[in-house]
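[Meeting: bench + compute handoff]

Bench side (C.D.) handed over the final construct sequence. Compute side (W.E.) agreed to return the predicted structure before the next meeting so the bench team could plan truncations. Sequence as handed over:
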Amino acid sequence: MMISRLLIPVVAIALQAGCGTTQSGAVVAVPSLGAEDSAGAIRAAEEVGAAHSPEAALHLELAKEQFEHSRHLTKPDDRPQSTRLLLRARADADLSLALTRENNQTVETQLALGKLKTLNESLQQNK
């Protein structure tokens, strides 16, 4: 349930990126804005500990690779490809962030359930 709620916005962003064309069919975007968004999403995923979750770490690494690849595309003809790479990097970083948050919540839930079980056992012994 939680994964599907988090995955829907990521898929929507990816689909939107695929439809981001003008009348002439060329992708028009300002790469610096895409770079800032992607870099911010990558930083956010790193800050919540995405490197500690295998699946999240994979998507974080993909985001970093796509970001770096886009930085090497400097020719004007490379702008559409660079923009697509930045959008993919942002989507992968967002997915990494969502997976990390889900993992963190699962761990917190398990800890809370363990404490609850301990309290219940303690109450049963005191009766």
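W.E. noted at the follow-up: The chain has one domain: 30-126. C.D. will use this when planning the next construct.
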